[in-house]
Amino acid sequence: MIRVFYCVQRNPHSGTLYFRMTVPKRLRHIVGKREIKKSLRTTDKTVAIPAAMNLYSQVKDYFHQIELAMSNKKPKIQPETDSNLFSEKITLSLPGGGEAVIDTGDPVKDAEVAQAMLQATGSAPAPAPAAPAAPAAPVSESIKLSEAAQRFCDEKVLGCTWTAKTRGEMESVFDLLRRVLGNKVMDAFTFADGRRFKETLLRLPPNHTKGVYSGKTIKQILAMSPAKTMAPRTVNDKIIRSGALFQWAIRQGYCSIDPFGGLKISIKSRPHEDRDPFTNDDIKLMLGPVGQKLFKHEWQRWLVLLGIFTGCRLQEIAQLRLCDIDQADGVPVIKITPDAGPLKTAASERIVPIHPFLSEYGVGIEANYRESLGEKLFFPELQGRSISSGEVAGRWFNRTFLQGIGLRPTKKKISFHSFRHTFAETLKVRGVDEGTVGALMGHSHSKVTFGVYGTGKTPLERLQEAIEKLTFPV
C-alpha cells in the first residue's frame, strides 16, 4: 500500500494542503532540488489524497527514469524538461515575441534571474499556466450553525449516545460559539475563525454568563478585562466539542473543513495529577467523630461509605437501585448496569463484590428497609431536581462535607473522584493486578489480546479476593 499521506502536509497559516516529497540524495544533482513541493489547492484531505497519489506516481516514475538513465539502460533523458512538471516556474514574455521559461529548481534563484532579465530586456513577466484546481469538497447544502447544532444534538440523543446533561453542556458550547463567531452557514467558517474562537476563550472568565457578566455581549465582557480567565483544560474542552460538531457536519456534507483541528493547548500534566487520592488519615477523619457530625441525613453516610469501599463513580452510586444490591453465586454484589441510568462507557457495566465492612455495617439491611417503604432507589433523596442525582450528591460532598472536615481548601485537588484514585492505589499496593482492578472500576482492558480477543470477564472469586484486600484504619 502506498503511504502517500506521509507526503501531504497542511500549511499552518492558510490550511491549504501541499504535496511534499524529498528527492533522494543520489538524484539531487540531476533533479536540481532537494524537495518537490506542490500545492494541492484544497483544505480537504478527501480531495487532496487522490491528487497526491497521482503526483506520487508521477514523481516515482520520474525518479525511475533517471535511475535507468544513470545505469545506461535507457537513452539519457532530459531532466530539466521532466522536472518542469514539478516546479514552480516563471515565464517571461520576450520583446521580439515568444517566451522564456526560468526554472533553476530554486524559487529564489528563479526570481533573481527573472529580475535580471527584466532589467536587461525590459520585458514583462507572464504568469505561468495555472494548474487545474482540485475539485471543491462535496458540500451538499449549507445550513447555519444553530441548525447544524440542533441536528447534531438530536441525532446524538436519539442514538442514546448522550444523556440530557451532556446535551445541555454541548448546547452551551455551541451557543458560545455562535455568540463569538456569529450564526453563519457552516461552510463559511474558516481556520481564522477557529483561531479567533480560541483567542477569545483565553480572555473570557470561567462564568461568563453569571454575576457581573450576566446579560452582556462577548465584546462587553472582553472590554471588562476579567482578571480570572478560563483554565487551559476548559478551553481545550470547548475546542474539542466545537470540533466534534464540525467533524459531524463534514460527514453530512454541510461543510468541508474543521476550523478547530490542531488548536488544542498543549498541557504537560498527566491524567493522575488531576485529582489527589485520599490518605488513610483523610478517610479516618471522614468516618470519625468530626465526619459523623456532618451526616445530617442517612443518605450522606451511605454515599461516603460506598465511595470508599466500591471504587464506583459518583453517578453510578447516586443512581443505584435497590434491586442492584443482590447476590451472584452466593456472593453479595452491587450491579452497575445501564438499566439504572447512563454509564460512562460500555466497560462500566460490571459486578462489584460488596466489601465485608459494608456488609457488617448493614448495606443489605438498609436496602431491605428502603424496599419495605416502597422505594425503588437506594438514594431517592437525590432525585427530582433540575440537575442530575450525581451532581446533587457531588455538591454536598465537595462543597459541604470536605470543607466541614477541614480538607478544603487545604487540599485543592480532591473531590469525590479521589475515592477512585484511593481505591486503585490501595489495591495496587496490596499486589492486585491491573486487569482485576480495571474490572472492579469499570475500565476496558488496555491490551489488544485480552481487550479484543478475550471474554473481558474477570472471575467473581478473583474480584472478591481483591475487594477483601481493601483495608483502611477505620
Task: Give an overview in words.
Helix 5 (145-158) packs antiparallel against helix 6 (164-181), helix 12 (298-310) runs parallel beside helix 17 (418-429) and helix 17 (418-429) packs antiparallel against helix 18 (434-441). The strands form 3 sheets. The chain has a 3-stranded antiparallel β-sheet with strand order 1-2-3, covered by helices on one side. Strands 5-4-6 form a 3-stranded antiparallel β-sheet, covered by helices on one side. The protein has a 3-stranded antiparallel β-sheet with strand order 7-8-9. It is globular and about 85 Å long. Residues 73-88, 123-140 and 448-455 have low confidence and may be disordered. The chain is mainly alpha-helical and 474 residues long. It is built from 20 helices and 9 strands.
